[in-house]
Amino acid sequence: VQLVESGGGLVHSGGSLRLACVAAGFTFSEHAMRWYRQAPGKERTFVARMSRYGEVIDYLDSVKDRFTISRDNAKNTLYLQMNNLKPEDTGVYYCKADGYPSWGQGTQVTVSS
User: Fold this and answer.
1) How many degrees, rounded to 5, is the angle at CA 109 between CA 108 and CA 110?
2) How far is Cα of residue 94 from the mean position of the Cα atoms in its chain?
């Protein structure tokens, strides 16, 4: 299983970023996918989850109405559109496939106030 996250960067508060996670080594369309984040000095926490075909979506309460998870099963890619970013969204963002323990290297998101 390989997961490669990208799209992070440095933005001002209120800005937007779109993260992508390209998956390989397993049948992407058969697994729910999740985004997590890890702030400096804190544990990795759940951000969003999408079922195999997008029929079930869950979000961390603090990102609802600002973040949108999506997937393109034809491209083996998971996305996270992040709008109205806040400093507390700062962290390393990771994707993960349900049923596998593997993590990617993550992508750094830094939101300045």
Assistant:
1) 115
2) 6
- Terminal Cα-to-Cα distance of the chain (whole angstroms): 37
Residue 47 near residue 35, CB atoms below 8 Å = yes
d(CA 37, CA 46): 7
- Only one residue has tokens 């999408």, namely 50
| pLDDT value at residue 63 | 98
- What count of residues does the chain have? 113
How far is Cα 29 from Cα 17, in angstroms, rounded to an integer? 24
Q: What is the pLDDT along the chain (113 residues), one digit of tens a residue?
A: 999 999 999 999 999 999 999 999 999 999 999 999 999 999 999 999 999 998 889 999 999 999 999 999 999 999 999 999 999 999 999 999 999 999 999 999 999 99
In the DSSP assignment, the letter for residue 30 is: G
- Of 57, 54, 55, the closest CA to residue 46 belongs to 57
Report the helix count and the strand count for the chain, using DSSP H and E.
0, 10
